[in-house]
TrEMBL record:
It catalyses: 2 nitric oxide + NADPH + 2 O2 = 2 nitrate + NADP(+) + H(+); 2 nitric oxide + NADH + 2 O2 = 2 nitrate + NAD(+) + H(+). One of its GO terms (biological process) is nitric oxide catabolic process. It comes from Rhodopirellula sallentina SM41. The keyword Transmembrane does not apply. Its EC number is 1.14.12.17. The record marks 84, 398 as: Influences the redox potential of the prosthetic heme and FAD groups. Binds 1 heme b (iron(II)-protoporphyrin IX) group per subunit. The gene is hmp. This is Flavohemoprotein. Pfam families: FAD_binding_6, Globin, NAD_binding_1.
Length: 409
């Protein structure tokens, strides 16, 4: 427990920290990578260059400080952090490194305002959060290691198949290189790919598992991102996977992790609506296929938005959901269809997934909603569902990259 004095100090400095949070986190990463370069391997450098990672950390710090006397409300955020850390192999000994550089960054930015008393309070508050995260991470590590086929850290996998799903999406079917067992996973979880790429060595990337558990393989489906400049490494790993990783190659993976999941073994009392935008289809397809495979009887709606048939991945797999006994409705929506897409029946509708479209095609009164896609897409979906009166506890979404508030777009 934090002392009353620490809680009081943190509350007093929260406005000043919030006003300087972006500057503090940018300074923090600069200091940490310079002083402890060994931790750089845990970070996606594309997210560093884009500013997503510093912005996400700034938001997390502000949320923690603002709720310093009511930490129970941060349970979901702690779970997100713990799952991410376990996917990367973060250990307890890394936490003091972060704490040191965070306090030093606050001193750098706030100057004389960062008194010894304030720094001591920040250190105590950080220590409590570290203890909570480490405790949860130990539980996750134990589960990952001790389940059949489980592991921690990295494990070599063989690329068994490589399948083009669209003009821009390719699936990789992966099996353990040691022919050992595969652990199960929860639909919606991701694995971490570690590649020693020349320009971003050991830079990790999380990819959602795009098929359901129990297949005998892991499948990731990778969108080819537009490659950025050398100093902005967007698309480096996705292009490398598309162009240089093929059948028979071996890549290192972290174990399945992630908190954006759906328990398909428990009876569902509400309809479930999946809304996918672009490559956001991957975790949702895993969930939907797992629901159907489990003999689910609740109504399922799968709305998939894409640019056109060239960019549309998993058309047949999504349509195939409705071929089983489970009550599944599928709809494809293109916002920039090719000339023959409509006449060839490749899409059901043309346009955007609007509030009116959701009201007409989904049971907004009682359904659970799971959505994933580009941030503007998710912002639009969340706003539309809010306006339709869908309670926040029925909304579930996944970010590809560091989590940030949707309203920040």
């Amino acid at each position: 427990m934090l002392s009353e004095q620490t809680i009081r100090i943190i509350k007093q400095v929260t406005p000043a920290v919030a006003a300087n949070a972006d500057t503090i986190t940018c300074k923090f990463y600069q200091r940490m990578f310079a002083g402890n370069p060994e931790v750089k391997a845990f970070f996606n450098q594309a997210h560093q260059q884009s500013g997503q990672q510093p912005a996400a950390l700034a938001g997390a710090i502000c949320a923690y400080f603002a709720n310093i006397d009511n930490l129970d409300v941060l349970g979901s955020e702690v779970e997100l952090i713990a799952q991410k850390h376990c996917s990367l192999g973060v250990k307890p000994e890394h936490y003091p490194i972060v704490g040191k550089h965070l306090i030093d960054a606050i001193k750098d930015v706030m100057g004389d305002a960062a008194t010894d008393e304030i720094c001591a309070a920040v250190g105590e508050a950080y220590g409590l959060l570290a203890d909570v995260c480490i405790g949860r991470e130990n539980e996750i590590y134990d589960h990952l290691q001790n389940q059949p086929g489980g592991w921690n850290g990295k494990r070599d996998f063989l690329v068994e198949r490589k399948i083009a799903e669209s003009d821009i999406v390719t699936s990789f079917y992966l099996k353990p290189a040691d022919d050992g067992a595969l652990p199960t996973f929860l639909p919606g979880q991701y694995i971490t790919v570690h590649l020693d790429h020349p320009s971003t060595p050991t830079s990790p990337r999380n990819y959602s598992l795009s098929d359901c558990p129990g297949t005998g393989y892991f499948r990731i489906s990778v969108k080819r991102e537009v490659a950025g400049a050398a100093e902005a490494p967007d698309g480096v790993i996705s292009n490398y996977l598309h162009d240089h990783v093929g059948v028979g190659d071996v890549i290192a993976l972290g174990p399945p992790c992630g908190e954006f999941t759906l328990d398909v073994q428990s009876p569902l009392e509400r309809p479930v609506v999946f809304i996918a935008g672009g490559i956001g289809v991957t975790p949702l397809l895993s969930m939907a296929k797992a629901l159907v495979a489990a003999g689910n009887k609740t109504p399922v709606y799968f709305l998939q938005a894409a640019r056109n048939s060239g960019a549309h991945a998993f058309r047949d797999e999504v349509r195939g959901l409705a071929d089983r006994e489970a009550p599944v409705v599928t709809r494809f929506i293109y916002d920039a269809p090719l000339p023959t897409d409509e006449s060839d029946g490749k899409c059901d509708d043309v346009g955007l997934v609007t509030k009116e479209y959701l009201a007409e095609n989904t049971p907004t009164a009682d359904a659970l909603y799971y959505f994933c896609g580009p941030k503007p897409f998710m912002l639009s979906i969340e706003r539309s569902l809010n306006e339709l009166g869908v309670d926040s506890d029925r909304l579930h979404c996944e970010f590809f990259g560091p989590k940030q508030p949707l309203a920040a777009v």
